[in-house]
Amino acid sequence: AQTVTQSQPEMSVQEAETVTLSCTYDTSENNYYLFWYKQPPSRQMILVIRQEAYKQQNATENRFSVNFQKAAKSFSLKISDSQLGDTAMYFCAFMKHASGTYKYIFGTGTRLKVLA
Amino acid sequence: GAGVSQSPSNKVTEKGKDVELRCDPISGHTALYWYRQSLGQGLEFLIYFQGNSAPDKSGLPSDRFSAERTGGSVSTLTIQRTQQEDSAVYLCASSPRTVNYGYTFGSGTRLTVV
Lengths: 116, 114
Fold this sequence. Notes:
The complex is a heterodimer.
Chain A: E1 3-5, E2 10-14, E3 19-21, E4 24-26, E5 32-39, E6 46-52, E7 60-61, E8 64-69, E9 74-79, E10 88-96, E11 104-106, E12 110-115
Parallel strand pairs in A: 2-12
Antiparallel strand pairs in A: 1-4, 3-9, 5-6, 5-10, 7-8, 8-9, 10-11, 10-12
Chain B: E1 5-7, E2 10-13, E3 19-24, E4 31-37, E5 43-50, E6 65-69, E7 75-79, E8 88-95, E9 104-105, E10 109-113
Parallel strand pairs in B: 2-10
Antiparallel strand pairs in B: 1-3, 3-7, 4-5, 4-8, 6-7, 8-9, 8-10
């Protein structure tokens, strides 16, 4: 069975600084997808970035980028130039490719606070 | 609609009562999911609907939980004889058939059982 681990329950960062959130996962699959979701106080989960396991190039979306290490089963999220609006819970999620049910396995989340 | 709509936003109910939670997915999205988010925990898969296929109910925690999706659109999650451990945020999400680009989530229903 797949598992996703986020070992940092809480983190804080000064505005405009860079922060990295860690995520590790365990799977025997070769094809899968990894995601980072942001959950602000509004509760709605917002997709931040996704990575396809067969791609070696790390995904980037503006200030957000990932460090995907497939052999180490690591998928960390780097937020550059942190903004107050980045304050939220961040969840790492694993999705198996071509499964009958495309369900996520989520980590327990990291609460990020950006300080002014 | 423009997004996934869930109602009610918050629900307080007495232990032993039945509750219904509603999800209105994005028009045209064939896949619909329910997840449960308990305090301090990640999201737990409950049930998945895809088009006219039989739903995947493998995540439902007990037979007190059931869900249906009518006409391939609106879904209702029903919890019978609620217990205090059912208190959580229930999130609904929808996606097109090709889901590897991620889902669109609603804002959830916070259920409190007193």
